[in-house]
Write a structure and sequence with these properties.
The protein has 384 residues and is of the alpha/beta class. It is built from 13 helices and 19 strands.
Length: 384
């Protein structure tokens, strides 16, 4: 029986060793062991030769890159949940399937959201810097380093998807009152579980909250969703936390208003011009008015390995002639270039509208083994 030729898989950044090792075993994998970010020219060259391209959220796979792709390129298996780094519309028009890695970063990102939600009102970064400076600490005082408690405060969550709901569950344990704005109201059962109040009007919610948590994806519709006009609706003692995408907030307006005392402070893990960070924000961080993190929300070993596992499953499914479980599809009812992310639970078989073709799900077995709904088993990690 002839051995099937392994697909050429080009990986744009350094991934966890266990993920790269399994990729080498399953595919003809070209790895980036130096972890040097690829230029647009290098990404275009990779698209010319690859059967499968595995970019990360910082790689811009735009129309200019895709226009130079070779006939072999049939799958872009994104190492990341968001796909705003990929021109999905152009990819689909060229017959290229796009997949992502939803779900695996939910808990990690929610943890970091809560960390920032605590750090800003309680002035944790400022307190840590006192002990890290050359100047000796003079000791405790009743009126020194006073922040604000979060218990009993109103938290307004923008985007009540997986991450937004995970944030709400954590926040409830800290005694916050949960409010949310979402494109669609979540089921009544979820609202009851989270004791969440829905606001159809984002403007009305913003004006009444103590803390705002941004957990919506970046799409053309959410660019500068928190515009200068909307930021002015916030109370002067309100805080903003963003672990989603920097483009959702008008960063210049935010910095200007925090500096002027029109907003109490902000905790940011993402930035509008990332990796560049606004000098205004850096200056504010030195005064303690904002807490800045370098996009660490999903940075756990477990999360990165889970992401790599999803990438491998998506590639394996595609190469086996099945529809990948985390295929990104263009919504026929969307406005402009909005994409809908349709991911299927790993243990379920579902149909995908409108063509109702079968989707192949995967059941996780023991010892790194998976079985698809056709009964075929394969390993993602090392086989026992």
């Amino acid at each position: 029986m002839a051995t099937r030729k392994k697909p050429l898989v080009v990986v744009t950044r350094k991934l966890p060793d266990s993920v790269e090792t399994r990729m080498r075993e399953l595919f003809d994998a070209r790895l980036n062991l130096d972890d040097k970010p690829m230029s647009q020219t290098e990404l275009a060259e990779a698209a010319k030769i690859a059967d499968v391209l595995v970019p990360t959220v910082t790689d811009r796979i735009d129309a200019s890159v895709l226009s130079q792709s070779g006939e072999k390129l049939k799958l872009i298996a994104n190492f990341g949940n968001g796909v705003d780094n990929i021109d999905v519309t152009t990819a689909l028009q060229r017959g290229i399937t796009v997949t992502n890695t939803p779900g695996v970063l939910t808990e990690d990102t929610a943890d970091m959201t809560m960390a920032l939600l605590l750090a800003v009102p309680r002035r944790l970064a400022e307190g840590s810097s006192v002990l890290g400076s050359d100047k000796p600490w003079s000791g405790w005082s009743p009126t020194w380093m006073l922040g604000h408690r979060i218990w009993g405060k109103r938290l307004g969550i923008i985007g009540m998807g997986r991450i937004g709901q995970a944030v709400a569950r954590r926040a409830r344990a800290f005694g916050l009152q949960i409010h949310y704005h979402n494109r669609r109201r979540v089921p009544a059962r979820t609202e009851e579980e989270l004791e969440a109040t829905y606001w159809e009007s984002l403007d009305q919610m913003l004006a009444r909250m103590d803390i705002i948590s941004v957990n919506c994806p970046h799409t053309p519709a959410t660019y500068h969703l928190l515009s200068a006009r909307r930021l002015k609706l916030l109370r002067s003692d309100a805080y903003i936390v963003n672990t989603s995408r920097g483009e959702v907030i008008d960063e210049n307006a935010l910095a200007r208003m925090v500096e002027a005392g029109e907003i109490a402070g902000a905790g940011l893990d993402v930035f509008e011009q990332e990796p560049a960070v606004s000098p205004k924000l850096l200056r504010l961080s030195r005064t303690g008015k904002v807490v800045l993190l370098p996009h660490m929300g999903s940075a756990t070993i477990e999360g990165r390995i889970d992401m790599g596992t999803k990438v491998i499953i998506n590639i394996q499914a595609f190469m086996d002639g099945h529809r990948p479980p985390d295929r990104v599809a263009r919504s026929r009812t969307a406005v402009d270039a909005l994409s809908r992310l349709d991911s299927f639970d790993s243990h379920e078989l579902r149909t995908y509208p409108p063509d109702r073709r079968r989707c192949v799900g995967y059941e996780r077995l023991a010892n790194n083994r998976y079985r698809n709904t056709d009964g075929v088993e394969f390993c993602v990690g090392p086989c026992p």
